[in-house]
Design goal:
By secondary structure, the protein is of the alpha+beta class. It contains 8 helices and 20 strands. The strands form 4 sheets. A 6-stranded mixed sheet has the order 11-12-13-10-4-14, sandwiched between helices. Strand 12 and strand 13 form a beta hairpin. The protein is globular and about 65 Å long.
Length: 367
């Protein structure tokens, strides 16, 4: 049995009365006393702060760092400038997804930060090491040395600049980052987000992140748990590894092939992605909107109007923002066209639904 770890903010979560649960090997807050709806609405309307210290930080450096990262990553890091961030995946040769991640181009030449999903840290690190033969690189899993918070919402810039004094955040555009320091301690501030709203991620040592968390909460910023993190990312059409991406669900199936740069000379899994884009795939990820208020949960069958199963729900909620029952589903590609009428089976009853765009909510990033 794997040991469940605590993040550096664990005692803060308990003091705030958070409901805790194991997630990706960590004891994480699911919701606080305000509840998921209040936390969700705080991010949509004002600002919330998340503990994301469970995420992994792997650094790649050395003379061959650029070539190596391009070899294992689907996006093209050769196009990055220092301070840029790219989203993409690491793939198996058959096109299955090892993980989806962010790559930060270092201000130090030849250094890259790979931010990976918490559940995949050890797997990703092993994958990188196993594919590094022939490359002059240094690969360091520094995940235990870093902590991270995410400040999200339309008022997040004001919170980061005014409450935390990080004025360096204001000039950042979407998917860029900068570095600063506090008493000689390295601090990374980025502007990406996983909620559909403007937002920032702050990485530093545990002491700095604990101090920042305390200042934000004392200033009245709503602490938010993984419950609303999931409802927010889902409304904004963002995948969760293990649900909408996996070793069995490729970027092409998930509708994310735009992050696979096929004009690159090579990357692991490229041949499989080219084949899937050329020949198509048997399954595709779609958005579904139910005509009823019934909630389609992960694992529920998706059926044709003749009640023949042709797919399965991967994530489903009654949208807090939109007041609609919506879900992602992996379905037979023949039934993936927008406007297709289908059924979702919920507890032995079927409910009509229609294929819609996966981005249910109009995102509000600062471009």
């Amino acid at each position: 049995m794997c040991e469940i770890k605590n993040t550096v903010l664990h005692s803060r979560h308990l003091a705030l009365g958070a409901v805790m649960s194991p997630f990706a090997g960590f004891d994480m807050p699911i919701r606080y006393q305000a509840g998921i709806i209040a936390e969700h609405n705080a991010v949509r309307k004002s600002c919330g702060v998340f503990d994301v210290s469970h995420m992994g930080e792997i650094f790649v450096s050395g003379p061959d760092a650029l070539g190596f990262v391009n070899h294992v990553f689907t996006n093209d890091v050769s196009l990055e400038r220092p301070g840029d961030i790219l989203y993409g995946m690491m793939l198996y040769p058959d096109g299955g997804v090892v993980d989806d991640l962010l790559v930060y181009a270092g201000f130090t030449p030849g250094e890259y930060l790979l931010v990976v999903n918490a559940a995949n840290i050890d797997k990703d690190y092993a994958y990188l090491l196993s594919n590094s033969e022939g490359y002059d690189v240094r690969i360091v899993n520094d995940s235990d040395k870093w902590a991270q918070i995410a400040v999200q919402g339309p008022e997040s810039e004001a919170a980061v600049c005014n409450v935390l004094g990080l004025g360096c955040a204001s000039p950042l555009s979407f998917y860029t980052y900068t570095e600063t320091e506090k008493d000689g301690v390295r601090i990374i501030v980025s502007r990406t987000g996983y909620t559909g709203e403007d937002g920032f991620e702050i990485y530093s040592t545990p002491d700095v992140i604990i101090s920042y968390w305390d200042r934000l909460v004392e200033a009245g910023i709503q602490p938010c748990g993984l419950g609303c993190r999931d409802t927010l990312r889902f409304e904004a059409g963002m995948p969760l590894y293990g649900d909408e991406l996996s070793e069995c669900i490729s970027p092409v199936m998930a509708g994310l092939s735009m992050f696979c740069k096929l004009d690159k000379e090579e990357f692991i899994g490229k041949d499989a992605i080219v084949k899937q884009k050329t020949e198509g795939t048997e399954r595709k990820l779609v958005g579904l909107e139910l005509s009823d208020k019934a909630v389609a949960r992960a694992g529920y069958p998706v059926e044709t109007l003749d009640e023949i199963q042709i797919g399965i729900v991967t994530t489903g909620y009654h949208s807090i923002t939109l007041d609609k029952s919506i879900c992602f589903a992996l379905v037979d590609s023949r039934y993936s066209a927008l406007g297709t009428d289908l059924l979702v089976r919920i507890r032995n009853k079927v409910f009509p639904c229609k294929v819609v765009k996966k981005r249910f909510y109009q995102t509000k990033y600062k471009k």
